[in-house]
Design goal:
The complex is a heterodimer of chains A (about 200) and B (about 120). Helices cover about 35% and strands about 45% of the residues of chain A. Chain A is an alpha+beta fold and about 200 residues long. Chain A has a single domain, classed as Immunoglobulins (Immunoglobulin-like, Sandwich), CATH 2.60.40. Chain A is elongated. Chain B has one domain (about 35-125). Chain B has a 3-stranded antiparallel beta sheet. The longest helix of chain B is centred in the N-terminal third of the chain and has 24 residues, at about 1-25. The radius of gyration of chain B is 26 Å and the shape is rod-shaped. The chains are: A alpha+beta (about 200), B alpha+beta (about 120). Chains A and B meet through helix 1, helix 2 and helix 3 of A and helix 1, helix 2, strand 2 and strand 3 of B.
Chain lengths: ~200, ~120
């Protein structure tokens, strides 16, 4: 009688223990922690877009973006999280007799860009050895009321990548069109996003 | 004789349960801490809510941390103590004696026409 009762108690204990699955609980915790990192990544993304508004009419917006990227990277590095990526900033302004598109590329990939090829429609320019956390600038001739496609190709020691940015050029006020490709890597999770933002220049 | 057998059976049953309990539940597994992650989530959303109300940036840029703390208090669970630190690159840790202190960072680029990137660090314990 007592032996049967002890077996019943043991079965109940086994069922309780299997319901308390520690692995599952750990997975849930990691999921919650990665959710926390996701909202931090969203904070950086939205702040990069706001940087363009914050710097509006205050110096060089393109420099502000580069600086904010470095600031975010430094803040995350202090918590063993890495931020990398690159920014393509295209600016044009009117009225001008010979309008030009200024293109600036900031390398924050964490590695040297061995080759960078910028192609605006059929016009192409090539750059070599762009160090990490540095940028290059160049200009292309454009004409108003046309849509341009800027193709960016880069090559590093670990990847070859091509991205395209649509640049609608219209008469009137100039624009800053920024393409962001940013990624945040922690020991738990990696987030990456590409997005474009446009600001009408003052 | 029958009583002796019953006593022996009950002792064996108790021993069986005891041995099982020690073997099965004896391993030193500690449950993960969920409370602090919840605090971080709530802290972050509280900061974001303050930012969406256009209040956070001006207080942060003027380093008015007391006002930020007062604005945050109704937005975080009442049992949590908070301390806000606004810094640029190096952020000093507050002198708080607690084993369970956690923090969340909220980055801002500045305010309209005022580019001054800052970290707003919310400590909770």
């Amino acid at each position: 009688m007592f032996l049967i009762l002890s077996i019943v108690i043991i079965v109940i204990l086994v069922m309780l223990k299997s319901g308390l699955n520690l692995t599952k609980i750990m997975e849930n915790k990691q999921y919650m922690e990665s959710g926390l990192e996701r909202i931090e990544f969203q904070n950086i993304k939205s702040e990069m877009e706001k940087t363009m508004q914050v710097c509006y009419g205050q110096g060089n917006m393109s420099d502000c973006l580069d600086d904010f990227f470095k600031f975010s990277k430094s803040s995350l590095n202090a918590r063993a999280v890495d931020l990398s990526g690159y920014l393509v900033k295209s600016t044009y302004s009117y009225p001008e007799t010979s309008p030009q598109l200024n293109v600036s590329v900031f390398n924050g990939l964490g590695a040297e860009m061995n080759t960078l090829n910028l192609t605006l429609n059929s016009s192409s320019q090539m750059f070599k050895s762009i160090q990490d956390v540095s940028s290059i600038s160049t200009t292309f001739s454009i004409s108003p009321n046309s849509d341009y496609v800027l193709t960016v190709f880069y090559n590093t020691s670990y990847e070859n990548k091509t991205d395209t940015v649509i640049i609608p050029v219209s008469s009137g006020k100039g624009k800053l069109i920024t393409f962001f490709d940013i990624r945040m890597v922690s020991n738990r999770v990696e987030y990456r996003d590409k997005f474009t933002d446009t600001v009408i220049l003052p | 004789m029958k009583g002796l057998l019953k006593s022996l059976e009950s002792i064996i049953a108790i021993l069986t349960i005891f041995v099982f309990f020690v073997v099965f539940f004896g391993s030193n597994e500690t449950l993960p801490e969920f409370e602090t992650i919840n605090w971080q989530m709530k802290g972050f959303y509280a900061l974001r809510s303050l930012d969406q109300g256009n209040e956070l940036r001006q207080y942060a840029l003027s380093n008015n941390t007391n006002v930020i703390e007062n604005e945050l208090l109704p937005l975080v669970p009442p049992e949590i103590n908070i301390k806000v630190v606004v810094c640029q690159s190096f952020c000093e840790k507050p002198d708080v004696q607690s084993e369970k202190i956690i923090s969340i960072n909220y980055l801002i680029a500045g305010d309209v026409n005022d580019y001054r990137p800052r970290q707003i660090v919310l400590y909770m314990w």
